[in-house]
Design a protein that fits this description.
A four-stranded antiparallel sheet has the order 1-2-3-4. Helix 3 packs antiparallel against helix 4. The protein is α+β, with helices and mostly antiparallel strands and 124 residues long. It has a single domain, classed as GTP Cyclohydrolase I, domain 2 (2-Layer Sandwich), CATH 3.30.1130.10. Helix content is 32%, strand content 33%.
Length: 124
Amino acid sequence: MGQIALEGLEFFAFHGYYDEEQKIGNKYGVDLYISTNLLAAGESDKLQQTVNYEVLYRLVAEEMRAPARLLEHVAHRVLDRIMAELPHVRKVRISVSKFNPPLGGICHRARVTLVRRRQPKTTA
């Protein structure tokens, strides 16, 4: 088992609880951590035996383009996509941050973190 991380991804997107946030947009950050078996890729040096960083980035970018009211919802959608499209991924942890959230005071970022583990297959 090993980990692949994409840290510090930045997007300008139109998420937010308030209608104004969805109109003017804001800067968001994403940190993504994938747990999977990296042994075969380490031995073979072949991209098809690991998780392609470009594929991960594309999945995150696509979900960031679709407006949502809550950061929790954005993170949940990314987890759904990764688990559906990358069956060899065992665990995903994602943090989604909104920079300078409209709280009426100073706050550099608001962040949510979600984790999902693939359930082991059961035999009948």
